[in-house]
């Protein structure tokens, strides 16, 4: 390994209560840090607002996937029953669109569901089994009973003392430095 | 800047309960994040009750073996080994298909509908309810495949490019149902897996052995629990829930249309699709109650599946049971009021004919048996709910028998009359499908968290409250 210093990934503070994490996140955002990430073992609704997160892609993707599936399958059935495989079944019209609705609805739901799940995984960057945050020795508790806040370099210059002083003022249970 | 309220207090406020009452009702008292996590993961990682589990697993494996043998003989000798005949072309195969898929629907409703309605009590029940849905849907989906005369051609029901230039007949409810079941299996699987993802991460981080860490780690896909993960997860989960609820209604309406779109007396009535949906929720909640009470007893998790949960399950059972009873009443009324001679003859046949035992069994097991649930003391008793749920599960099977066999055994023409009796292989296949369900349910209970850890954790607090509110 060359003599260059490892790249800083951030300072990680550990909290016992979700309220402390939310308060620290709000303070960090107010302080002007650009790369702030919170970790919790369950949904903490105020954290999104505290960090200014507004993910908007998934509902749009779901709608697009659903419409594509429903309309696509409706057109498939129309082509099949009217054009390709004409069959007189009990005198029903060839373009019996009321019959086509139910499967189109089902395929539309399937399309929306698959798009949502795949979209969520792709946007989250999962599966990703290796990640710098896992170097944190206490991070196992992030999925159990502890809440973490990481402040990273972002696009500003990394001033470890300033970040450390700020985080210590939030009274964390522990404070660790992580590198990439 | 005010300190934000804890998530548990926010949930309590949403239910309009003081925090202590909320914790008492849904957590059996004070629980911390650690006790919730430990309480559930210890079942998965430490395998308590090993002996008992092995005995039950051996029994269910035996039934699964019976299933394999039944299917093997069926493929070898053909559908003639069953009791199906002309005109009773649908017997145990479709009875059990509708029974299984009805049971499956309740798991989705508990998970998805109660999520949309923001009912916190679903959190302790939704995981095993979703698993029940998945397994019941698999058991159901097997029947339409095996009941075909040439089951190896089952894929002809699907639209795929083929050398014969054929398409499935999309105007048929049978094709609607094939599509609906496949979509239901897919959506249930995705919903179940997305709900499990954060719990896989918890198991990954708590597992002691390297192999368990690797397996759960792969299943967790590297979940880190960042705020953005959770925000997107919540959106995805809510979207899937919003998709699942209308899907349940359309799947079981489709099953109802299998009958309603025909011309048979007793089937050709518009009440059937919604009536089937109510019946499905009714039977499904009965089986969820059975599973909930069994797990509660076997693993001693009374503080996670509390008396409040039992009470709420009982209320839903009573409500859907009454809706189903309304369906029975309406069928009889419309037959009388409509004056159609064949439908009237059918209703009289149901009341006093050769298979009248199925009709009266339905009335006894589905309508009479749930009446004690009006009383709060009965609702809070896990034993009472267990027995009533068992009665409902059997009663709903009788109902499917009544609907299918009574209509089919006596048709429009005098020549279209033939009685139906199930053969040994009908029963063996049914018992075998129960074995399939139990085998995978037992495997799930052993290796996966049967209660949603992170959703119950949300209701707890970081440490024991020292007498009174925090």
Descriptive account of the structure:
The complex is a heterodimer of chains A (180) and B (470). Chain A has 180 residues and is an alpha+beta fold. Helices cover 48% and strands 14% of the residues of chain A. Chain A has helices at 18-31, 45-51, 57-84, 97-124, 160-168, and strands spanning 8-15, 35-39, 147-152, 174-179. In chain A, strands 2-3-1-4 form a 4-stranded antiparallel beta sheet, with helices on one face. In chain A, helix 1 packs parallel to helix 2 (45-51) and helix 3 (57-84) packs antiparallel against helix 4. The longest helix of chain A has 28 residues, at 57-84. The model of chain A has no long low-confidence stretch (mean pLDDT 89). The longest helix of chain B is centred in the middle third of the chain and has 34 residues, at 173-206. Chain B has helices at residues 7-14, 19-27, 33-46, 50-77, 92-116, 126-146, 173-206, 210-220, 227-260, 272-299, 307-338, 341-352, 356-368, 376-379, 382-409, 424-447, 453-457. Chain B has 470 residues and is mainly alpha-helical. Chain B is built from 17 helices and no strands. Chains A and B meet through helix 1, strand 2, helix 2, helix 3 and helix 4 of A and helix 3, helix 7, helix 9 and helix 17 of B.
| Bulk shape of chain B | globular
State the separation between the terminal residues of chain B, measured CA to CA: 19 Å
Q: State which percent range the strand residues of chain A make up.
A: 5-15%
Q: Tell me the Rg of chain B in angstroms.
A: 24 Å
Q: Approximately how much helix is present in the residues of chain B?
A: over 70%
Number of helices of chain A: 5
What is the count of β-strands of chain A? 4
Q: What is the percentage of strand-forming residues of chain B? A: under 5%
Biggest interface goes to: A-B, 71 and 70 residues
What is the percent of helical residues of chain A? 40-55%
Output mean pLDDT of chain B: 91
Structural class of chain A: alpha+beta
Contiguous uncertain segments of 5+ residues of chain B: 466-470
């Amino acid at each position: 390994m060359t003599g260059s210093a490892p790249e800083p990934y951030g300072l990680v503070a550990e909290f016992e209560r979700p309220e402390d994490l939310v308060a620290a996140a709000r303070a960090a955002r107010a302080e002007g840090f650009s790369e702030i990430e919170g970790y919790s073992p369950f949904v903490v609704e105020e954290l999104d607002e505290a960090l200014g997160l507004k993910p908007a892609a998934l509902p749009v993707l779901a709608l697009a996937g659903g419409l594509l599936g429903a309309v696509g399958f409706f057109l498939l059935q129309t082509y099949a029953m009217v054009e390709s495989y004409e069959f007189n079944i009990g005198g029903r019209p060839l373009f019996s669109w009321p019959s086509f609705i139910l499967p189109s609805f089902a395929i539309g739901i399937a399309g929306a569901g698959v798009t949502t799940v795949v979209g969520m995984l792709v946007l989250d960057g999962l599966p990703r089994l290796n990640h710098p945050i896992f170097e944190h020795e206490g991070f196992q508790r992030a999925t159990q009973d502890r809440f973490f806040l990481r402040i990273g370099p972002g696009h500003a210059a990394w001033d470890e003392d300033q970040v450390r002083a700020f985080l210590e003022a939030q009274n964390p249970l522990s404070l660790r430095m992580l590198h990439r | 800047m005010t300190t934000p309220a804890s998530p548990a207090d926010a949930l309590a406020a949403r239910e309009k309960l003081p925090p202590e009452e909320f914790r008492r009702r849904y957590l059996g008292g004070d629980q911390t994040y650690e006790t919730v996590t430990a309480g559930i993961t210890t079942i998965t990682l430490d395998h308590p009750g090993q002996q008992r589990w092995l005995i039950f697993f051996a029994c269910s494996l035996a039934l699964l073996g019976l299933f394999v043998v039944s299917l093997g003989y069926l493929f070898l000798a053909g559908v003639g080994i069953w009791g199906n005949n002309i005109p009773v072309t649908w017997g145990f195969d479709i009875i059990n298909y509708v029974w299984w898929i009805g049971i499956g629907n309740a798991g989705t409703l508990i998970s998805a509908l109660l999520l949309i309605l923001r009912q916190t009590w679903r959190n302790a029940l939704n995981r095993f309810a979703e698993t029940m849905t998945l397994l019941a849907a698999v058991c159901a989906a097997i029947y339409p495949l095996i009941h075909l005369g040439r089951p190896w051609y089952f894929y002809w029901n699907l639209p795929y490019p083929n050398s014969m230039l054929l398409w499935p007949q999309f105007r048929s409810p049978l094709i609607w149902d094939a599509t609906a079941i496949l979509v239901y299996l897919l959506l249930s699987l995705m919903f179940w897996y997305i709900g499990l993802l954060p719990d896989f991460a918890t198991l990954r981080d708590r597992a002691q052995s390297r192999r368990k860490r690797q397996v759960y780690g792969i299943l967790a896909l590297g979940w880190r629990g960042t705020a953005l993960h959770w925000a997107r997860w919540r959106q995805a989960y809510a979207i899937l829930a919003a998709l699942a609820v209308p899907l349940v209604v359309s799947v079981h309406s489709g099953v109802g249309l299998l009958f309603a779109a025909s011309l048979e007396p007793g089937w050709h009535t518009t009440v059937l699709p919604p009536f089937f949906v109510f019946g499905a929720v009714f039977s499904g909640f009965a089986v969820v109650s059975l599973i909930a009470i069994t797990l509660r007893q076997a693993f001693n998790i009374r503080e996670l599946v509390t008396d409040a949960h039992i009470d709420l399950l009982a209320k839903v059972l009573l409500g859907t049971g009454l809706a189903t009873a309304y369906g029975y009443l309406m069928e009889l009324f419309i037959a009388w009021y409509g004056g159609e001679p064949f439908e009237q003859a059918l209703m009289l046949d149901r009341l006093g004919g050769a298979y009248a035992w199925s009709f009266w069994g339905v009335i006894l097991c589905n309508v009479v048996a749930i009446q004690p649930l009006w009383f709060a003391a009965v609702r809070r008793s896990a034993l009472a709910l267990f027995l009533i749920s068992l009665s409902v599960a059997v009663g709903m099977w009788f109902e499917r028998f009544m609907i299918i066999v009574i209509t089919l055994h006596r048709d429009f023409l005098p020549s279209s009359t033939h009685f139906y009796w199930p053969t040994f292989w009908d029963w063996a296949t049914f018992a075998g499908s129960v074995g399939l369900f139990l085998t995978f349910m037992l495997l799930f209970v052993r290796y996966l968290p049967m209660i949603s850890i992170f959703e119950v954790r949300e209701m707890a607090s970081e440490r024991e409250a020292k007498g009174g509110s925090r």
